[in-house]
């Protein structure tokens, strides 16, 4: 599902016009991004939690040249799905301990 599809769905289900649905979604996304940038967690009950995780510096290799490089430390935006969400995705089964997290690749 794309951002445009979410906007259309919000507009259709709420009776909002498309312009207001765009504004509402942008406000939500900006709120999540700003909170993560401050280092805060964003918890949505029944859905999951967005948070920032620190990645230590590490050694790597340039794939083109094979040269060893130092990869600097960085902050990664991460999402951990809530139990209700995991169960919905897994047809009512809650597999695992809930430690399933997804790094979103947003360097902070």
Keywords:
3 helices; HU Protein, Chain A; 4-stranded antiparallel β-sheet; 2 domains; alpha+beta; two-stranded antiparallel ribbon; 36% helix; single chain; 108 residues
Plain-language structure description:
- By secondary structure, this protein is of the alpha+beta class.
- The protein folds into 2 domains: 1-38; 39-108, IHF-like DNA-binding proteins (HU Protein, Chain A).
- 36% of the residues lie in helices and 31% in strands.
- The chain is built from 3 helices and 6 strands.
- The strands form 2 sheets. The protein has a 4-stranded antiparallel beta sheet with strand order 1-2-5-6.
- A hairpin with a 6-residue loop joins strand 3 and strand 4 (68-71).
- The model has no long low-confidence stretch (mean pLDDT 91).
Short description:
The protein has 108 residues and is an alpha+beta fold. It has three helices and six strands, in the order ααβββββαβ.
What proportion strand? Answer: 25-35%
Q: What's the story with the biggest beta sheet? A: 4 strands, antiparallel
Main structural class: alpha+beta
- By CATH's scheme, which homologous superfamily of the largest domain applies? IHF-like DNA-binding proteins
Helix run count: 3
């Amino acid at each position: 599902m794309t951002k445009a599809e979410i906007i259309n769905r919000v507009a259709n289900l709420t009776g909002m016009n498309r312009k207001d649905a765009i504004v509402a979604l942008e406000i939500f996304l900006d709120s999540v991004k700003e909170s993560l940038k401050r280092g805060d967690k964003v918890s949505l009950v029944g859905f999951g939690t967005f948070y920032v995780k620190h990645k230590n510096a590490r050694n790597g290799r340039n794939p083109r040249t094979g040269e060893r490089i130092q990869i600097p430390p960085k902050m990664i935006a991460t999402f951990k799905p809530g139990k209700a969400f995991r169960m919905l995705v897994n047809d009512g089964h809650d597999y695992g301990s809930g430690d399933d997290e997804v790094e979103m690749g947003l360097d902070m």
